[in-house]
Amino acid sequence: LSQALNPPALFGGHWEHSAMASHPASDDVQFIAGCAVSAELLEGVDSEQLAVLEDWVVQARATLSEIALSPSVYEALQQQQVEATCALARQCVSIAAAVDWGPCDPQDSASGAVTSTGGFGLRVAEMAVRGVAAAARTLECVADAPMDHVERLGLDLDYLAPSLFSGLCRLDAEVLLVGVEEQLLLALQGICVWALGLVGHAIGGFKRLSGQVLWEWASGDPVWALLLAKGCLSLSLERSAVSEAVPFPADLGRLQRAILKAVLELASPDVAFSQVVGDSGDISIAARAEALVNHRAELAEAVRTCNFVPTLVLAADREGGEIGPKLAEFFVALLQPELIEACPDWASSSEAARATLQEARDVSARLVVHLPRHVRVIWRLLAAAPAAFAGQLPKGFLQDCASLAYFCQPPEDSLTTFLTSCLVARSYGSDASDDAYVLATLCVLAANAELITGSSVLAHALIGLNSFGQDSVLECWARWKAPVRLVILGQWAAIIINQPALGRPPPEVPPSPPPYAEPAVFPAPVQRGGAVLRDLMREAPAEFRCALDKCLMMDPVQSPYGHVFERSSLARELANSGGYCPITGRLLDFDSCDRLPGIRRRILQWIRSKRPIEREQPKWVAAAASSTAET
User: Fold this and answer.
1) Beta-strand pair 564-566/556-558
2) What are the beta bridge partners of residue 580?
3) 559 — phi, psi (to 5°)?
4) Is 134:89 a contact under the CB 8 Å cutoff?
5) Beta strand 556-558 with 430-431: parallel, antiparallel or unpaired?
6) Of 590, 584, 586, the residue nearest 569 (C-alpha)
7) pLDDT, tens only, 488-525
8) Nearest-CA neighbor of 400 among 464, 444, 348?
9) What does the alpha-carbon distance between residue 159 and residue 180 come to, in Å, rounded to a whole number?
10) Contact (Cβ atoms closer than 8 angstroms) between residue 164 and residue 231
11) Which of 141, 59, 127 is nearest to 95 (CA)?
């Protein structure tokens, strides 16, 4: 009798769900129910779609409030809850994708109404957030979730990629956002956060959110992967609490850390070849090398297209020096310094291979332009890395930093801080100041940073090297394959060989800088998923491209001089140039540029005609989920 009256004692307490205790997704379903009968949706959304939405609201409410009286019934109930909330989320997202989800027009800002000219519509955006949140919260309560429902929801989320791209581009011009537009941006960030939280819960926790999982969830599209990450990482914990209509996970910080680490894995060979068909041994070394270069070039171009560097650096700064080595490795992988001067063997195999090499070099040059603004915080993070690893220099860290310095030269004070922190660390069982490889690499780094020898901390560390140490340093330089500024390196060689008397060394620990305040054709063996945004960017007709950056427009505006721009791109350019038109060089008032809803609707129709039909099988997502079920 006691067991019957106390079921948790019999079944371990894992299955019982009382109607008295509200399910985590109940508030989201209740919010969606209110949206379904709101004046905004009744006026702007098709009645058949609303009827389907109301049916799934009823089913979701029923399953979330049902009581299970045995473990077997509870398992079946959980599956029903996942099915109902995922279907409800799909319908919310489908409605959002079916309306004109462009940015709000000024005349609609007061009401946020969903009309043919009202854009995405604040109410529809908030409803989409709540739908995905309900599915994610339900999955969090389920140990073994059915992946087919999650995968279908992922496909529907792909349809929102263009509108998210348009909205999140405005993160770089927040001064223009007021009222409904500001709330709309928060809702778009909410969709990204909950979409990534959804897949995290589906595979058994945020720790399993690897670069391979993120890549597959984004259908192998680098722009879409970085866009989802940007929406999540750009959200501050303070801003996540400003809207009652758009909730965010209580463990947002953990999710952001997992997504940051996943992003920093996207340039790895494991991700580049995660969808290789057949035996990987059948792929030649040359084909793999070319595919990896192509993968990294596309990822670098996506970083530039999404203006992802500010978001990435700000997210890394929140984590501190521990993330420094991965950040340096990521930037170096995208910049591909080994291609700057050398011509690899695979590049001479065909015309397509030569085009791949040239494109990689061009993309690297375009990406470098985005780094100088963040140089201080990048090198501050790198300088903090040895201390974050208990005084040990991580493997490969110095070589990545030396290559990065060639593209992103640190200011002298930042460089001094970095050199000091490295010289007092340890490397492979010995003090870094006594390690010939460490000294050789730091000399290359100093040369690439154009540091004149003088009496720097590094110059003093080189004094006293015996002949064996000198030969070891010179041998390391002879094997160096990355670019180096040879003229300045020669000056460091003179220090090593001549051992001159130096002046007084600088202070051992220089003052820290202020805290950060700124916000080709693929080889046949490698197959990609259905591209979500990448192909749209490539195939867009000329009339749908911004006159400034040639990217697909989502919020086109026309200047008095007749040129058509993406609104956020023009706003950024005018802010940087002091109000001068980037095409004519004449003064241009941003408010004098008219929005073009007609062109926006034509772009929308063209995008819908390009929607992917299906995704590939979720290999890495399913693998992560199955490993969770086994444990």
Assistant:
1) antiparallel
2) 587
3) -80, 160
4) yes
5) unpaired
6) 590
7) 999 999 988 887 765 555 544 444 444 444 433 333 33
8) 444
9) 23
10) yes
11) 127
Alpha carbon distance 402, 590 (integer Å): 42
Q: What SS3 class is residue 79?
A: helix
Q: pLDDT tens digits, residue range 277-288? A: 545 556 788 889
Give the CA count within 13 Å in the CB-facing half-sphere of 356: 27
Instruction: State how far the Cα of 373 lies from the Cα of 57, in Å rounded to an integer.
Output: 48
- Sign for the CA dihedral angle at 365, 370, 371, 372 comes to positive
* Residue 411 neighbours by CB distance under 10 Å: 13
Q: Is 313 within 8 Å of 378 (Cβ atoms)?
A: yes
Q: Distances from the Cα of 481 to the Cαs of 146, 209, 341, 571, in angstroms?
A: 49, 33, 10, 41
8 A C-beta contact, residue 112 and residue 179: no
Distance from C-alpha of 505 to C-alpha of 293, rounded to nearest angstrom:
43
Helix (H) or strand (E) holding 63: helix 47-65
Helix (H) or strand (E) holding 260: helix 252-263
**CB-count burial class (<10 Å; 0-12, 13-18, 19+) for 178:** exposed
Residue with the two structure tokens 């079921």? 7
In the three-class reduction of DSSP (H, G, I as helix; E, B as strand; rest coil), residue 237 is classed as coil
Characterize 196-221 residue by residue with b for buried, 16 or more Cβ atoms within 10 angstroms of its Cβ, and e for exposed.
Answer: bbbbbbbbbebebbbbbbbbbbbbbb
Q: Which amino acid is at 25?
A: A
Helices (H), 350-450: 351-368, 375-388, 397-407, 412-423, 436-448
Cα gap 623→631, rounded to integer Å: 13
CB of 281 closer than 8 Å to CB of 275: no
CA distances from 441 to 339, 473, 480, 482, 488 (A): 19, 9, 9, 11, 14
- Residue 239 pLDDT: 76
Q: Using DSSP bridges, classify how beta strands 594-595 and 564-566 pair: parallel, antiparallel or unpaired.
A: unpaired
Q: Residue 428 is encoded by which pair of tokens?
A: 């492979």
Prediction pTM value: 0.82
- Tokens representing 310 are 């500010």
Query: Which positions ≥6 away from 207 have C-beta within 8 Å?
Result: 258
* Residues linked to residue 526 through DSSP beta bridges, in sequence order: 276
H or E element that contains 566: strand 564-566
Q: Which amino acid is it at 270?
A: D
Please name the helix (run of DSSP H) or strand (run of DSSP E) that holds residue 450, with its range, or none.
Answer: none
As given in the structure block, the two tokens for residue 162 are 């263009």
Look up residue 140 and give its amino acid. E
- pLDDT tens digits, 535-554: 666 778 888 888 887 878 87
SS3 label, residue 479: coil
Residues forming a β-bridge with 430: 427
For the record, the structure tokens of 528 come out as 């990609």
> Bridge-partner residues for 595, per DSSP?
557
Which DSSP symbol is given to 392?
A: B
d(CA 172, CA 576): 12
496 neighbors 444 (Cβ within 8 angstroms): no
322 vs 316, 318, 385, 398, 533, CA distance in Å? 9, 10, 6, 15, 32
User: Given this model, what pLDDT does residue 12 score?
Assistant: 36
The low-confidence residues of the chain, meaning pLDDT below 50, are 1-21, 103-120, 174-176, 278, 507-530, 613, 617
Residue type, 601: R
In 259-364 the beta strands, taken as DSSP E runs, fall at: none
